[in-house]
Design goal:
This protein has 357 residues and is mainly beta. 6% of the residues lie in helices and 48% in strands. The strands form five sheets. Strands 8-9-10-11-20-17-16-13-14 form a nine-stranded antiparallel sheet, covered by helices on one side. Strands 7-6-12-19-18-15 form a six-stranded antiparallel sheet. The termini are far apart.
């Protein structure tokens, strides 16, 4: 058939609302998302009167370091910029619903965005293409989250840090824009919402609002700024229960590192995994060849901020395991039993294993 099989679709779409098996998403008259109701938890992700994925734009002329800084008063300059040109369903199947929206933004730029909803997940993806032609203007996407928390968690390399969502102290007021890598999470002890992204690493967490910086278009040292075509994806991920590795960190990895698929012949057999880890909070961050050519290296880290014990089981032939420093030096041999090795992790500890046949 040329079009989607509507009989298999679990989604219901009207001009004002989209219903999935897990969520109800409602729009206002201007096409803004004003409600994301979690049907399992019985609560709205959006605060009353707020918006989800509000596009904000404002003049950006920092006092110094043109292409690097965002000044403390930037938030006062940001205004909602939602000039919706069109919105239509472009895919509707058993697993995924895709709504494509086109906007005029700024003075002469255009943004096309696919909002992707899933039948088996609460995650909402915003796959975005921007034709950017602005100068000295900053573009953000803002989310008014119905969670009250004094701190938000932000990913850094091999771990995460908590930053305040308030400005009670001078040091808090200095954190008006903070770094995040693949995710930021705002949670209480029973519920939370994460904002995932695949390449946007600055965010403001103020009260219950998360505002992700998307494009910064200053002119020094490169007077072209960020002019041109940009492709990026960010995602809203509600989760029941508090923050955790399986609820936030692993979905962020899955957004950033998609599976590589290749055709196989009729005689192909299933391959064992290179290795498996029995602790959900231990992440295999990298696999590479050893610098001295003696084998391959596996780098793991504890991602949840907790002490844990883990067992790594190898599917590839391995006879010797050395635990080394990050430079693959000063190795000490670990005991290998039935192709497995066990050890303890401190919170956020990084381990480097040199594996030899």
């Amino acid at each position: 058939a040329d079009g989607p099989d509507q009989a298999q679709s679990p989604f219901t779409v009207t001009d004002e609302q989209i219903a999935t098996p897990l969520l109800r998403v409602r729009f206002d008259g201007e096409g803004r998302i004003v409600s994301v109701f979690d049907q399992q938890a019985g609560r709205d992700v959006c605060i009353p009167g707020g918006a989800i994925n509000a596009l904000l734009i404002g003049e950006d002329v920092p006092l110094a370091h043109d292409n690097w800084d965002i000044d403390a008063d930037q938030d006062l300059k940001m205004e909602t910029d939602h000039r919706l040109l069109s919105r239509k369903v472009v895919a509707d199947g058993p697993l995924q619903l895709r709504i494509r929206s086109e906007y005029e933004i700024g003075l002469r730029s255009r943004l096309v965005q696919d909002m992707v909803l899933h039948s088996a997940s609460k995650q909402i993806d915003f796959e975005t293409r921007v034709e950017w032609a602005e100068g000295y203007r900053l573009l953000k996407a803002a989310f008014d989250i119905n969670v009250a928390a004094a701190e938000a968690r932000h990913e850094i390399q091999y771990g995460h840090v908590a930053r305040p969502t308030h400005t009670n102290r001078p040091e808090d007021r200095a954190m008006f824009e903070v770094a995040n890598q693949k995710w930021t999470d705002l949670s209480d002890n029973g519920y939370g919402v994460a904002l995932l992204n695949d390449c946007k690493y600055g965010i403001r967490a103020s009260g219950s609002r998360l505002a992700l910086s998307l494009i910064k278009s200053n002119r020094h040292p490169d007077d072209r700024g960020d002019a041109g075509t940009h492709f990026f994806t960010y995602s809203l991920l509600p989760h029941e229960g508090p923050f955790g590795v399986e609820s936030v960190i692993r979905p962020a990895y899955e957004l950033n590192i998609g599976p590589i698929v290749a055709p196989a012949g009729d005689g192909a057999e299933d391959l064992a995994s290179l290795l498996t880890v029995d602790a959900a909070n231990v992440i295999v961050e990298a696999v590479k060849w050893a610098e001295d050519g003696s084998g391959f290296v596996v780098r793991l880290y504890e991602a949840g901020g907790m002490a844990t014990r883990a067992q790594v089981t190898f599917g590839a032939p391995v006879a010797h395991i050395l635990e080394t420093n990050l430079l693959e030096e000063n190795g000490s041999e670990l005991e290998l039993a039935d192709a497995s090795v066990a050890f303890a992790f401190r919170p956020f500890e990084v381990k480097t294993l040199v594996c030899r046949a």
